[in-house]
């Protein structure tokens, strides 16, 4: 078998066999297939797509290329959540604590960000001492005891995906549905979870810009999950404007804590408790998502979710005082600079990805994989789409460690619109079950 023949087959629109996909994955892991041939096949997949059978085969071959976590010693249904990512999307951080407070084990393996703001692990590392890299045995013991842990991939999870993703990022093939589906699900299946809720973002700040593309991705992900016997469903949610008010690593940790203190922004609370409701059903503690959502609201209101988060932080060697007094523990930016509205009216647009770029330019995200993050910087929105604003009133506050932020102001002004009227956007478009 030759790699050039596999490239030719996919370029010509043919369906790849299990044997061809296995040859490709083995060659990627061993290094016997050069990057230029891997890149050529990725581009052919980008343009020609894959059948459901090909997607499932690619996912399973990538999963089988490395370690598989055995979580069977953890009692109960293990439930995880994955988001395709967006600006201000810190849902995983409070959600793990909320669902754990219901008695459901949440073994959450998360990632970092490239561009925009940091990923879940980067945000948690804004807490001094928090360890995202722990051993498999420590991970399992913590989930048994505290019911939740949020860590980076333990062991050698899906090594084929690591190499393929690095090439996707530099060959502009990141937003290929078969490749996204294979990447996400190979890691989630290898992580040993029993059930999975997937938050597929759609809009300006998401990989999938349209509802149709988001729906196709959600169906692909759910189909793969169910095909291997996993409980799996997806929600399609809005990412045209940032989620919540805070964008930036330490700022998003503080906002997550505010949510757990029953004082979070409406959209973030709604999405967290909605996803938590589905996880409650999967974890056999609620009969309906609505009942599960109510249970999530209750553990936030009675402080059990906050206590669960504090226990997780302490177990992973973070400074648990962050829960009681975030500002004294989290890194603080030197400058807080308001951006005043130039006119009165109703906010009609906040372009999510450009607000994310603004945070990145302040140092809150990565332009290159090896960039170091400034955890203290970011943006805090005082108003969202549909809100009334008066001329001179702050639209947002820029948290910066440089005094001159004229470039950031210009970027933000060009991506926030004030009109005579606007409707609040839909937060959750549909579910795929």
UniProtKB/TrEMBL annotation:
This protein's GO CC annotations: cytosol
Pfam family, one: Glycos_trans_3N
Coiled-coil region(s): none
Domain Pyrimidine nucleoside phosphorylase C-terminal: 346-419
Enzyme superclass (EC): transferase
UniProt keywords, alphabetically: Glycosyltransferase, Transferase
UniProt-listed GO biological process terms: pyrimidine nucleobase metabolic process; pyrimidine nucleoside metabolic process
Entry's EC annotation: 2.4.2.2
InterPro entries registered for this protein in UniProt: Glycosyl_Trfase_fam3, Glycosyl_Trfase_fam3_N_dom, Glycosyl_Trfase_fam3_N_dom_sf, Nuc_phospho_transferase, PYNP-like_C_sf, PYNP_C, Pyrmidine_PPas_bac/euk, Pyrmidine_PPase_CS
Single GO MF descriptor: 1,4-alpha-oligoglucan phosphorylase activity
Catalytic activity: 2'-deoxyuridine + phosphate = 2-deoxy-alpha-D-ribose 1-phosphate + uracil; uridine + phosphate = alpha-D-ribose 1-phosphate + uracil; thymidine + phosphate = 2-deoxy-alpha-D-ribose 1-phosphate + thymine
Cofactor requirement: K(+)
Subunit structure: Homodimer.
NCBIfam families: PRK05820.1, PRK06078.1, Y_phosphoryl
Annotated function: Catalyzes phosphorolysis of the pyrimidine nucleosides uridine, thymidine and 2'-deoxyuridine with the formation of the corresponding pyrimidine base and ribose-1-phosphate.
Family of this protein: Belongs to the thymidine/pyrimidine-nucleoside phosphorylase family.
Protein name: Pyrimidine-nucleoside phosphorylase
Organism listed in the record: Lentilactobacillus curieae
Source organism phylogeny: Bacteria, Bacillati, Bacillota, Bacilli, Lactobacillales
């Amino acid at each position: 078998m030759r790699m050039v023949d596999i490239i030719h087959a996919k370029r010509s629109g043919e369906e790849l066999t299990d044997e061809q996909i296995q040859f490709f994955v083995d060659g990627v892991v061993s290094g016997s297939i050069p990057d230029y041939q891997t890149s050529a096949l990725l581009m052919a997949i980008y343009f020609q797509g894959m059948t459901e059978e090909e997607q499932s085969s690619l996912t399973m071959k990538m999963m089988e290329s490395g370690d598989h976590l055995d979580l069977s010693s953890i009692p109960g249904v293990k439930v995880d959540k994955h988001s395709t990512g967006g600006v201000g999307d810190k849902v995983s951080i409070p959600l793990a604590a909320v669902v754990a407070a219901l008695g459901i084990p949440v073994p959450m393996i998360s990632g970092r960000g490239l561009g925009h703001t940091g990923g879940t692990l980067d945000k948690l590392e804004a807490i001094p001492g928090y360890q995202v890299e722990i051993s498999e045995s420590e991970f399992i013991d913590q989930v048994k005891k505290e019911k939740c842990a949020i860590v980076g991939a333990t062991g050698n999870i899906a090594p084929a995906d690591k190499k393929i993703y690095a090439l996707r990022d530099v060959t502009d093939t990141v937003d290929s549905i078969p490749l996204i589906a294979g990447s996400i699900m190979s890691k989630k299946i290898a992580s040993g979870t029993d059930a999975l809720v997937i938050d597929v973002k759609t809009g300006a700040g998401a990989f999938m810009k349209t509802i149709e593309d988001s729906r196709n991705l959600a169906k692909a992900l759910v189909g793969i999950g169910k095909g291997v016997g996993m409980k799996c469903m997806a929600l399609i949610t809005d990412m045209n404007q940032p989620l919540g008010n805070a964008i930036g690593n330490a700022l998003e940790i503080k906002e997550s804590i505010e949510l757990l203190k029953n004082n979070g922004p409406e959209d973030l609370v709604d999405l967290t408790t909605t996803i938590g409701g589905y996880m409650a059903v999967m974890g056999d503690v609620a009969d309906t998502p609505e009942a599960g959502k109510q249970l999530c609201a209750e553990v936030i209101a009675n402080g059990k979710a906050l206590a669960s988060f504090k226990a997780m932080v302490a177990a992973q060697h973070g400074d648990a005082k962050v829960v009681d007094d975030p500002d004294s523990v989290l890194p603080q930016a030197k400058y807080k600079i308001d951006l005043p509205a130039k006119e009165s009216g109703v906010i009609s647009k906040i372009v999510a990805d450009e607000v994310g770029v603004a945070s990145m330019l302040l140092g809150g995200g990565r332009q290159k994989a090896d960039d170091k993050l400034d955890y203290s910087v970011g943006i805090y929105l005082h108003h969202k789409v549909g809100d009334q604003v008066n001329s001179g009133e702050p639209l947002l506050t820029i948290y910066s460690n440089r005094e001159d932020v004229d470039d950031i102001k210009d970027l933000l002004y060009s991506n926030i619109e004030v009109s005579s009227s606007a409707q609040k956007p839909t937060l959750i478009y549909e579910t795929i079950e």
